[in-house]
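Protein modeling request. Please complete all fields; requests missing the sequence field cannot be processed.
Requester role: graduate student
Desired output: 3D structure, token encoding
Chains: 1
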Amino acid sequence: MKVGVRAHDFGKREIEEMAAILHDEEYEAAQLALPKAFIGIDRYEDITLQHLERIRTAFERQAVEIPVFGCYMDLGNPDPEVRAYAVNTLKQCLAWGKELGALVVGTETAYPHLNDQERKRWKPYMLDSVQRVLEEAQRVDMKLAIEPVWWHPLEDLETTLEVIQRADDAEHLRLIFDASNLLKKPSATDQSALWNMWLDQIGSYVDVMHIKDFSLDRRGNYQPEALGAGVMEYDAISCWLRKQNREIYLLREEMNLLFAKEDLAFMRNL
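Delivered output (270 residues):
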């Protein structure tokens, strides 16, 4: 197991500066969304082979691995132009991710917070987009990792299993597991049962976990918290991790420097 962080939680930096910061803060790995993390890259269209070489060299020098090349795209959007951009950009990022030496190229399946009807309407578009991107992943021999989120078209275990079965390719289709993004009703959920159900069925597809914690205010608004200080219960996930005999990356999202060291200790204890 290796612990890491979403790099752009440290803001937008020069490539070499970011790699040094991550090393100094004792992270072993990082998720990189290049337009969010690096000065001089404002859009995916700005990425060059020179950027990729600088990133690869700087991160190797600082011994910080790159498990996730982040390219979060609106794959289920009913608008054909939006969806075409999402698919084409993600396809290009598969080639860039391979050039960079990333483990996977990661994406969610939508941008907005969708209601029940919207999620159902967006689902067929999402399924088609994932399949077309997966074909490119197979062609360039790079792993595509999709992330289930309860307010997106890839909203639940049933839909996730459907995508897995349609793909039938565990070599190129992987999962990013973010338990906090699957906890729809914290106060009414048996988290141990929920996480065991998920991991029993899709755990072999999980190479990366996002680790975060949160609370809900009186109006139900999301509030990030230090790990262990919110509603998330990680005991079942920890038990599952301890049974694994392969490398899994735990990446902190919503990192806050006020309690970053304590969060690192929490993740290592998992």
